[in-house]
Design a protein that fits this description.
By secondary structure, the chain is α/β, with parallel strands linked by helices. The protein contains ten helices and seven strands. The longest helix is centred in the last third of the chain and has 14 residues.
Length: 243
C-alpha cells in the first residue's frame, strides 16, 4: 500500500511540536555546509528549511510520500531544495547523498528492513543517518483509548514502533556501523487537541471511516484519555554507511 496523503494545511497549523523535535535532531547532524543531504519524510518542509540554512554551499533533497505535503514544501522551499514525492520503501536518489535526516517518519513504514536497506543505498560511503521516530511505547495511551472505543476490530493500526535494541540489531545486520540508538519520552499538550489528533495521530484511522463518523471518533478517543496529552516515546538513531 502506498503512503497515505495528508491534510497538509492542517498539519502546517498544528505541527509546531513536531518541528521542535525535528530541530533537535538536526542539531545532531554535523555539517561543513557543502554536503548533499536528504530529508527523508520532509512533511511541509519546516525542518527542511532549517536544514537548507545549514548548507549554504550544499544541496538539499527532500522527499515525502504525501503529494499534499510535497506541494506545501515546494512552496516553502522554492529553488533552495529538490523536493519530490517518494515512497521510502522504493527510494532511489541519484547521485547519492552524504547524509540523511529523518524526523517523525519511520514509524509510518511497515518494513524497516527494506527501509534501512534503501537508505543505505542512497548514501555515499561514509555517509551518515540521523533520525528520530516513534519508538516502542509511543502513544500507548492513545492506542489503548482507540481499543476502548472499539471501532476497528482486529486492525493493529498504521504504526511500526520499534525498540532501540531491535533497531540497533537490524541496522548492524544490514551493514550499518557506528550505530547508536536510544529513546526518551516527550509529552506534548496540543493547543487544539481535536485538530492535532485528527491530523497528526488518527489520520490513517479516519480514512477507514465514513466522513460523517470522523469527528465523533476523534472526540471519543480524546474523551477516553485522562488528559489530552500525547505521551510520545521518541526513538533516536545515529548510524553510518561504512567508508
Amino acid at each position: 500500500m502506498p503512503p497515505r496523503d495528508w491534510n497538509a494545511t492542517s498539519y502546517e497549523q498544528v505541527s509546531a511540536p513536531l518541528e521542535a523535535m525535528g530541530r533537535d535532531v538536526l542539531d545532531r547532524l554535523e555539517l561543513r555546509g557543502d554536503e548533499r543531504v536528504l530529508d527523508a519524510g520532509c512533511g511541509t518542509g519546516r525542518v527542511t528549511a532549517a536544514l537548507v540554512e545549514r548548507l549554504p554551499r550544499g544541496e538539499v533533497v527532500a522527499v515525502d510520500g504525501s503529494p499534499a505535503m510535497v506541494e506545501q514544501a515546494r512552496e516553502r522551499l522554492g529553488a533552495s531544495a529538490e523536493v519530490f514525492v517518494a515512497d521510502l520503501l522504493e527510494l532511489e536518489v541519484d547521485p547519492p547523498v552524504d547524509a540523511i535526516l529523518s524526523t517523525a517518519t519511520f514509524h509510518w513504514i511497515p518494513d524497516h528492513d527494506r527501509l534501512f536497506a534503501r537508505l543505505f543505498a542512497a548514501l555515499n560511503p561514509g555517509g551518515r543517518l540521523v533520525a528520530q521516530c516513534g519508538g516502542a511505547g509511543n502513544v500507548a495511551q492513545v492506542q489503548e483509548a482507540i481499543q476502548r472505543v472499539g471501532t476497528f476490530g482486529d486492525w493493529p493500526g498504521p504504526w511500526n514502533f520499534q525498540s532501540p535494541a531491535d533497531t540497533e540489531a537490524r541496522l548492524r545486520r544490514l551493514g550499518w556501523v557506528d550505530v547508536w540508538t536510544w529513546s526518551f519520552p516527550v509529552p506534548v499538550t496540543p493547543e487544539d487537541p481535536h485538530e492535532y489528533f485528527a491530523t497528526v495521530i488518527l489520520g490513517s484511522h479516519l480514512e477507514r471511516l465514513d466522513p460523517g463518523e470522523r469527528d465523533a471518533f476523534v472526540d471519543a478517543v480524546i474523551a477516553e484519555l485522562d488528559t489530552p496529552v500525547v505521551e510520545y516515546i521518541r526513538l533516536n538513531i545515529l548510524a553510518r554507511r561504512p567508508s
